[in-house]
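Case study 2.
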Amino acid sequence: MRLTDEEFVDSLLFDIRFQYALLVASNIRKLGRMELLYTCVADLVSFLHRTGMDDLLGGVEHYYDPNDYNQVIYHSKSEDASDRIKQILVDADKLLAECEGACDESSAYQLLVRVLKEQTVVEESGTRRLKTR
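Prediction:
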């Protein structure tokens, strides 16, 4: 390649910085998608609570707790992000099943349906995952 030692080191450092920037950008996108999904689930949970339909919550009441958002989004380790997203998607599917027919006209329900349609796919096994870009 006929590079001097200095040019080689500069080239190597550039490559490392570029790879790091790609990793950071990828993590930011993932966390942004997690926050979007969480917010949509939490909004539907809040709607159900406000309208007295707590019987449809079935184990996802923690989304109504104002401290839950910070705990899920900010206070968990970054390597847990995939697991947290999986749990949010499981909770979203529970809510969809419970609310179908009872909340179809609610904007919170419609928004959750839309975000799941745009951001996720359901695999043959029935599990939901984020779409890959």
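The longest strand covers residues 120-122.
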